[in-house]
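Same chain as my last thread, 138 residues:
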Amino acid sequence: MRGAVTVAGGLALLAGTLWGSNDHFPFGPFTMYATARRTDGYVRQTRVEAVDATGHRATIGDAQTGLRRAEIEGQIPGFREDPERLAALAEAHATRRPDAPPLVRIDVVQWRYQLEDGKPSGDVTKQLVVSWTDGGGE
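reply #2:
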């Protein structure tokens, strides 16, 4: 019985590799990891930067809000459509860090790093994607 299950699993993996897509994972390739990137070009990194009520600016991560970078990136179209949605990050921050000063501004920023031969070339640009300030979006 184990042999039959092993053979069936192996055949499913083979078929998924040859004809499958991300929808068939784990029996199909997960192209996020199965494709090569060019060694020259740009790499983007999305960051959430915030200003608190004292004027201190810092990058905030999942430990402060409970949302990982991938979840933030997935919400960018919604944040652009309605910047007030970023207020939820300020609320999550206040819940997780009740003794910290409240956040009065949240910026979603994409940092772009230029690569040459797969290594950072030193050229970095910042682009503001969307911003929220206490009392309204920008």
